[in-house]
Structures are given as structure tokens and as C-alpha cells.
Amino acid sequence: MNRYCVIMCGGAGTRFWPFSRESRPKQFIDFFGTGQTLLQMTVDRVRRLVPEENIILLTNEQYAETVREQLPGISQEHILLEPARRDTAPAVLWAAHHIAARNPDASFVTLPSDHVILKEAAFHDALRQGFEFVEQADRLLALGLPAKSPNTAYSYIQKEDRMPEHPDIFRIKTIAEKPPREMAEIFVKSGEFLWNAGIYLGKARSVISAFNRDVPDMASRFDVDSVCYLGEEENKFIGDIYPKTSSLPVEYAIMDRAKNAYVLEADLGWSDLSTWNALHGISPKNKEGNVTQNCRSLLYNCNDCIVATESDKVIVAWGLKDYIVADTDNALLICPIEAEQRIRNIVNDIRERFGPAYT
Amino acid sequence: MNRYCVIMCGGAGTRFWPFSRESRPKQFIDFFGTGQTLLQMTVDRVRRLVPEENIILLTNEQYAETVREQLPGISQEHILLEPARRDTAPAVLWAAHHIAARNPDASFVTLPSDHVILKEAAFHDALRQGFEFVEQADRLLALGLPAKSPNTAYSYIQKEDRMPEHPDIFRIKTIAEKPPREMAEIFVKSGEFLWNAGIYLGKARSVISAFNRDVPDMASRFDVDSVCYLGEEENKFIGDIYPKTSSLPVEYAIMDRAKNAYVLEADLGWSDLSTWNALHGISPKNKEGNVTQNCRSLLYNCNDCIVATESDKVIVAWGLKDYIVADTDNALLICPIEAEQRIRNIVNDIRERFGPAYT
Fold this sequence. Notes:
2 copies of one chain form a homodimer.
Chain A: E1 3-8, H1 38-46, E2 55-60, H2 64-70, E3 79-82, H3 88-102, E4 107-112, E5 116-117, H4 120-136, E6 140-146, E7 155-163, E8 166-177, H5 181-190, E9 193-203, H6 204-214, H7 216-222, H8 231-241, H9 250-255, E10 261-265, E11 270-271, H10 276-282, E12 291-293, E13 296-300, E14 306-309, E15 314-318, E16 323-327, E17 331-336, H11 343-354
Parallel strand pairs in A: 1-2, 1-4, 2-3, 6-10, 12-14, 13-15, 14-16
Antiparallel strand pairs in A: 4-9, 5-11, 6-9, 7-8, 7-9, 8-10, 16-17
């Protein structure tokens, strides 16, 4: 009952346009046509680890309605609405205070809501081991995954000394965000680097202490009497201080600096699903390497494509290699997978030319 | 008042799939986003030549409702509904009898309803000249267009002796349907061949005589007292004989055999619009050679493509050369223009796999 979970679902990615939109980022989409959105799958995944009343959703005000619709079982009190976008550090710090105000002995895990984890049992084992580890002492813990390729869009954690009695846990030496290609290749070869899953554990107290040590300016704003984190008072207080807080990712704020930061290495069948290519990577393919999502497709002379639609539309494609075909009600994207890094720019072009209805 | 027009609008082309469907062939589509369907444009085009009450629509029973909706001004009596598909010869013969029953001195022109004619004044001039020519004597006349390329999907008319006093009119030597590439190239080089527009003129009497001479078996079925072609009687009579009649194109039945068949050469800015490529050919292009129909498009590194949608959807394409992108509510086609001859097969595949809702 001392274990809590904070699910971060305020992100506004555009890289999955036209499926993801500003008004409906990918965590709110039923990506695999299973009947569950990525957010709903994330919540289901932790139900076996923490009681439902200890699940906290942290999102942007703009998505309040969507979150309530998708997760009717979550208590209103536990849906934390950021009044402004300030990256993950202020969000995690707020969550730590919110939890500590209710249970000073609590520990918690923060989870991204838009990733895929295929090995659920391994995920449960890793989190149980992680909770025990951070409950034993004043420690912060990240989850790291064996780096399988030199992906330049990922964050990497360099491990050093292995912990005695914890064969899968290491001290964190450093965290490197989105390295250049050559560096990513060295990382993978070295065997010292893990992909950072963006999953962190710690006692609420330990997290607050780390912020006090490493980012005291930010920490001092949040470090007030716990009544400020209860009921109506909380919205008022956060509405006041949040917009004044600096924007910072939690990796830089504490995990990369804290002397008591560790990483648990685990293979979770994880993908951050940040791009169409990532989706192609983890999806079942036919013998031509094509992935089709939710659609009736006829592909002639097509290889290594991903073809997706939201409806029961028929899609016929001929002669496409390594292409994304993504079709929605009001937008269609036909684009080489290798150009997917440009989708962000495309979305900007569209907003400029045709207005926000399409983005 | 002796001049009539028969507009053939029973065709069921699939080559413009997914825009054209079995339930809505291309004559019923507003192809250019002008607010008029090809059929409506065809009717408008002849209003200056024949009185509205002399315009006859010949279509298949299946399209009766669509024709009435699109042409509310046409008299019910002049919408002739084929109870079965029997190609153009029985249709033209029926139309000749229908017209002769009302006006034994009538002449008429048959017009396809799904072609494009850009030079309207030249069209009017040619038809006026054509009507005069067939009214002077027992003659049949086709309209032929300067053959501008060795298109293998077209029908070709070989001209011979020029008519004295009619510098643009020639005797027909032969008609060749869909020649192989090498032959089409010889046709174009020779200067003797014209593209066949599928537009024919003659007195109703002359047309009936030609059928009597050249296809007596078919002609005898239709050669009955004119009361059979009036009012309720007509539907009953046609419903009886039409299904028993052989299927035959009018080119073979009479135009290619009749000794009194002529061709009028005229440049009408004509396209039979039988394929996406034909549409690409006659449409305005941007400097990369791309044609966009009714859509908001962003084309990056695309050349010589045709991108079409029915809605105000945004279409983004990247790196396509010589492609068709045709998007409708329930079907999307992405296909090289050079593979468009296969669309017919694709449509069959779709019907088999996903059912008739998509074809």
C-alpha cells in the first residue's frame, strides 16, 4: 500500500502525424487496433503492482477530458493537470510532493504512457525488484534496456559498478541524450550503455531530497507545507507556482547528477514507439516485410512498408519500398520511412498552409 | 426540330477506381470539381444544337435514379433504360427506332457521356456540318480526331477519299480497335488514321437501313410497328427482346461495314478520359508536372503525379514519380501511372477479397 505509480501522459508528439494530433497525442490512440489505447495499456500493466487508488495520472490541462474518458476508474484527485508545459522534472517533483502529502512513507514509479512493453512478466519482475531496492535505502533507480541498435533518437544510460547482491543493478555513470550516430555506435559496441526507458523509482522522500540537493531553486518553490498538496488547495498552489518554474527533464535535473542514482538492467521487449519506423520494427510483418495496421490492404510489389488506417478502408498500393502510408479521416501521409524525421516539419508546413484542423 | 441527340450513359468503367464505382461510373462524377458531372457537361454541350425535348438518355436500368437526379429537366419518356447490357449496337438501333416512331424525318447524333471536349465551338461547328451532311443523303457519319499519339486504348478510323465540297469529310476505309503498340505507331505516322470519338450521326431511317443490311438478325427483332416504341408499350417490348439480342459494338455492326459510312475530321480538344493518365494529360499541372484534383496537397520531391480526393482532406506525399494517388471515403489507390492498365484486375482482386462495397 506504500507503492504508487505516476503515469506521465501530457506529451504532445507530432511524429506520428497524421495518426497523432496536437489534440490527440499518441498515448490516447488505439495504435494496434486492440481496443485499448497506449495509455489504457500502460494503466493495465501496473494494476498488478500497485492498488488502483495509488495510480496517479499527470497530464496537461488540455487533455483532462480525454484522460477522464479513457480512465473512468481513476479518482479525480489523482489526475494532476499541469497548467503549463515544463518538461518532466517539475512534473516528477510535484508528483513526489502529492504522494508524500498522502503517505510520507510512499515509494513510486514514473511511467511514460506512450511506450510499448511486450514482456509484461519481465516488467513486473523488474518493478518489484526496483521497489524493494529503493525502499531499502535513500536511492533513485532508473530502468535500462540492453541497447540493441545505435538509435540516435534515444537516451542512453552508462552503467558502472555492479551492486553486490543485486546482479542486475549498477551505479549510473552518466546519461547521454540523443547521441550522434558515431557515438551511438560506440555506445552499443562498448556494452556499457543501456537504453533509457524513462521509468524511474524512488521513495517520495528520496526524490524530494534529490531535487533539494541538485536543483534547489526549483525545489524551494515546491517545498511547502503538505496541506498545499491536498484537495482544492493543490490546484490553486500549482496554478500559482508551476508557470514560474523552469522547464527541465528529470534526467538532467536529478538522475544524471545524484550520487545515489542506479540503473536496473532488464529486457522488457520495450519500444518507445517514437516513430513509424519503431512501430514497423516491433510489428508482425508479412513475408514482404509489410506491416498493416487496422486495414484491408492489397499491396502489389511493395516491401518493408507500413500501411495504416483508422477505418475499414481498403488501401491499394503498388511498387512502394520502405514507405509509410498513414490514412485518417482528414489527412493522408505517403512518405519514405527514411524521411520520417521530417514529419515534424511537414506538420508545421501543414499548419501554416491549411490551418490547425489538420495538425 | 428534326435533330435529336442520344447520350449513351450506361457504361460501367472501372479504370477510374476508386473514384468510379460499379454503382457510380465516371459519367456521374464531378471529375474536375466544377460542380457538374461529365454527363451534365455533355448535356449542356448539346443544348445549343438540339432542343431539350429532343435529348434522349440511354442508360442501364441500374442508373435510372442517378440519371433522373442529375438531369431533372429530361422527359421521363426520353430516358431509355436497357434491361441488359448489350454494348452499343442494340442501343443505337433502339434509339433509331424510338426517334423514328416520333419523327420519321429525324436525324440524330449519339454521344458518349464520359468524354471531355475542350473546344466547344469546334464541336458545335462539327456537329452542325455533320447534321447537314447526313440530312442531304442516306449517309452515316463518324467524328474523327487527329491522332496525336499511338494510344493503344483507342479505336482508330482509317480515312480514304475526301468528299468533294466537304474538305473535312472522308470515306471510312476501316476501323481498328485498340491496336498493338507497333501498329498504333504506324497509324499515327501514316497520317491516314483518326482517333474515333465514338460520336455518330445519321438519319434515323439511314441507321435502321444500315442495320437491316449488315446485321439483319439483330435488325429484324427491332423492326416492328412503330407503336411498339411509344409509351408503356416500349418498355414492355424492349424488356422482351433486348435480353435476347446479341452484344455488339456499333463500330463493328455498321460503321466498319457500311458503304455509306464517312468520317468528319475535327480537332475538338477531345479526351476519352478513359484512364488516370488521360486525365493527367489534359489537366493543368504545376511546375513539377503534378496534377491535384479537389485537394489540399503538399507534395515534396514529387513529379508528374496525379493526386485526387473527393473531400477537403490534406494529402502529403513525398518522393513519388509518375504516381496516381486517388483517395475516397472507403478506398485509397497508390499506383504508378504506368500500372493503370491493371486497375481493372485490382478491382477484381478487391471484390474477391473485400466484397462489392469497395468496387
